[in-house]
Design a protein that fits this description.
seven-stranded mixed β-sheet; 4 helices; mainly beta; elongated
C-alpha cells in the first residue's frame, strides 16, 4: 500500500476516509490495525502512526489522533498480566488482548523496521484516571505456564522503557487500562542519536465522547476557541423507564386467578416490577461483537451484531426469564413464552449452546415466527440474545400457562428495545410503535397458532403452542419436572441451581464475551440477578 504522509493541514483534507473527527481537527481511531512507528525522515527520528483502518495506509501524527478503547474492550485480566504490570486482576480495558478478534476496537502495534536500527521506547509521562501498561501474554504462553513479558507501565514497580528491534515489523503487546476516562501517554523514541517525544490521547470506555477530547497533551490549538460547546437540550422524555444495564427478568406472575407478563428489575432483595409498556430496554454499544464461525443463523462471520451473553457482563443489560412467582402445584405443565412478532431494523435470536458447544436456537425472527420456549414453575433462566442491527425494536410476546384446575391464562405485551447509540432511548415511546421494519421477519408457513388474547379461556395452551413446536426449548430440566430439555443457565424455585452453559465461541467470563475453551461453572441465584462465576484467570488448554 502507498503511505501518505499527512501534516496537520493535510489531515483536514482527509475526511474522505470516513474517519470520525474530534475537536482540534483530530481523527478518532476506534477500529482496525495501526502501528506506532519510529521513522527516519530527513535524518531525524519521528514517532508516527501508520493507520490501516480504512484499507490503505495513512501516516498520522500522534498529536492529531485520539485513540478510543470502547466499552466492549473490557475483558478479564489474566493473573500473569496483572503480576507483570503491577495492576489488578479484576477486569480491565484491553487493546490487542485475547478478545481482539471478537470485538470492534483498535489493534495497536509497534513497527521498528522504519528506524534503521533498534529503537529505545520509553514512557516519558503518563496522565490518567487509573494505571496503564503494555505486556505480551498469549494463549501459547499460558499453556506453558510462562510469565507475561512487560514492556511499559505506569506503576512504579514496572519498567518504563523497552528496546524495539529494528527488524520488528509488528510487535503486538496487550495495552491495558484499569479505569475509564481520558489517558495521555507520552512516549520518547530514541535511535542513532536522534529522538522524538509525542503524546497520544486515549479515551477508555464510553463515559467520555472521544470526539470531544483534545488530542496530544490536551492543549487547545491556537486557532481554536477554548470555550466548550453548549450541548443541545435533550428532547422531552416520554413516560418510560429505561433499563440499560443490570439484571431484568421477563416474568410470569399470578394475579387474581389470571397471569400477568411483567418485568422484574434488580435482585431478589431489591427489585421493582414494571409493565412491559412502561419500559424501554437499551442494548448499549458495549454489546457490539463480531459473528464468530459456527453461528451462520446470525449472519456472515465477522459482521457486527449486538450480543447480550448468557452470563452477566458489566455495563450492559442482562435479560432473563422468571417463573418463580408460581409454585409447581399451581400449574398443569409449563409456562410458554411465545415471540409473536418482531418490528425493527434486523433480526433477533435467542439461544444457548449445548454440551458440545453447538448453538440451540429457541427464538429466531429470521426464520419465521411465532417461536416459543417453555419453563417449569419456580424457574429463573438466562440465554444469549443477539440483535442484527442498530435501531428501535418492538417484540410482542404472549405468555401463557394452564393452571392446576385446568384454566388457561395468558397475557400479550410488547417490549421496546433500543440497540446501539444511534437513537436516544429516552426519546422512544415504550410498548407498541409505528417505526418501519427494514428487514421483515419471515412467518412459519406451517404455523397454526391461535391469535393471542388475554382471555383466561380462549388462549392456546403451552403444550399446544410451545412444547410441541420444533423451535420450543426448555432452558433446564427442573427437579421434579417430568418435562425434558436443556438450555441456558437456570435456577429453580426451591433454591437449587443448574450449571450455566458456556456460550460456545462467545463464552462470558465476567465482563467480556470471548472465545474460551473449557466450561464456566456458574450458578444463578434464584430471582437475585447475581451470578456466582467460578472462573479461571487463565484459560485451560
Amino acid at each position: 500500500m502507498t503511505a501518505v504522509l499527512l501534516s496537520a493541514a493535510g489531515l483536514a483534507a482527509a475526511d474522505g476516509s470516513g474517519a470520525t473527527r474530534a475537536v482540534g481537527g483530530a481523527v478518532v481511531l476506534d477500529e482496525g490495525e495501526l502501528d506506532l512507528t519510529p521513522r527516519l525522515a530527513d535524518g531525524k527520528l519521528e514517532l508516527q502512526i501508520d493507520d490501516r483502518s480504512s484499507g490503505t495506509t495513512v501516516v498520522r501524527e500522534p498529536s492529531q489522533v485520539v485513540l478510543h478503547a470502547p466499552a466492549s474492550s473490557l475483558q478479564y485480566t489474566p493473573d500473569p498480566v496483572a503480576t507483570a504490570l503491577g495492576t489488578t486482576n479484576m477486569d480491565s480495558w484491553q487493546l490487542g488482548g485475547w478478545e481482539a478478534g471478537n470485538i470492534f476496537a483498535p489493534e495497536p502495534g509497534w513497527n521498528g523496521s522504519a528506524a534503521g536500527d533498534d529503537t529505545d521506547v520509553s514512557l516519558a509521562a503518563y496522565e490518567g484516571p487509573g494505571d496503564f501498561g503494555m505486556a505480551t501474554y498469549t494463549p501459547e504462553m499460558d499453556g506453558e505456564d510462562a510469565p507475561a513479558i512487560p514492556y511499559l507501565g505506569s506503576v512504579e514497580s514496572v519498567q518504563r522503557s523497552f528496546t524495539l528491534p529494528g527488524d520488528e515489523e509488528r510487535l503486538l503487546p496487550v495495552w491495558q487500562f484499569t479505569a475509564e476516562g481520558v489517558h495521555r501517554l507520552t512516549f520518547t523514541v530514541t535511535s542513532g542519536g536522534s529522538s522524538d517525544t509525542e503524546t497520544l490521547a486515549v479515551v477508555v470506555g464510553d463515559d467520555v465522547d472521544p470526539s470531544t477530547v483534545l488530542p496530544g497533551d490536551g492543549s487547545p490549538p491556537t486557532d481554536t476557541p477554548t470555550g466548550s460547546a453548549t450541548a443541545s437540550p435533550s428532547p422531552t422524555a416520554p413516560a418510560a423507564h429505561v433499563i440499560a444495564e443490570g439484571h431484568v427478568d421477563m416474568a410470569a406472575r399470578p394475579t387474581d386467578g389470571d397471569l400477568e407478563f411483567q418485568l422484574k428489575e434488580g435482585t431478589e432483595l431489591n427489585h421493582e416490577w414494571y409493565e412491559p409498556g412502561e419500559v424501554v430496554m437499551h442494548v448499549r454499544p458495549a454489546a457490539k461483537r463480531k459473528i464468530p464461525d459456527g453461528y451462520a443463523f446470525l449472519g456472515t462471520p465477522g459482521d457486527p451484531v449486538w450480543w447480550l451473553p448468557l452470563q452477566q457482563n458489566a455495563g450492559i443489560v442482562w435479560p432473563g426469564w422468571n417463573t418463580t412467582q408460581y409454585a409447581r402445584a399451581e400449574l398443569d405443565g409449563r409456562v410458554s413464552f411465545r415471540l409473536d412478532s418482531v418490528q425493527g431494523p434486523g433480526n433477533i435470536a435467542m439461544f444457548h449452546n449445548d454440551a458440545m458447544g453447538i448453538p440451540v436456537v429457541s427464538l429466531d425472527s429470521g426464520d419465521g415466527l411465532p417461536d416459543a420456549h417453555t419453563l417449569g414453575a419456580g424457574t429463573h433462566s438466562h440465554f444469549d440474545w443477539v440483535f442484527g442491527a442498530e435501531g428501535v425494536y418492538r417484540t410482542t410476546f404472549t405468555v401463557s400457562a394452564t393452571l392446576a384446575d385446568g384454566t388457561k391464562v395468558s397475557d400479550t405485551e410488547t417490549i421496546a428495545w433500543v440497540v446501539g447509540d444511534d437513537t436516544d432511548p429516552s426519546t422512544v415511546t415504550p410498548g407498541q410503535g409505528d417505526e418501519p421494519t427494514a428487514t421483515p421477519t419471515a412467518t412459519h408457513s406451517e404455523s397454526a397458532s391461535a391469535t393471542p388474547t388475554t382471555s383466561t379461556s380462549a388462549s392456546p395452551s403451552p403444550s399446544a403452542t410451545a412444547s410441541d413446536s420444533p423451535n420450543a426449548s426448555a432452558p433446564a430440566t427442573d427437579p421434579g419436572d417430568d418435562s425434558s430439555g436443556t438450555g441456558g443457565g437456570s435456577s429453580t424455585g426451591d433454591g437449587g441451581s443448574s450449571g450455566m452453559s458456556v456460550s460456545g465461541g462467545l463464552a462470558s467470563t465476567g465482563a467480556q464475551v470471548g472465545t474460551i475453551a473449557g466450561v464456566a461453572v456458574a450458578a444463578v441465584l434464584m430471582g437475585g440477578g447475581a451470578v456466582l462465576c467460578v472462573r479461571r484467570r487463565r484459560i485451560a488448554q
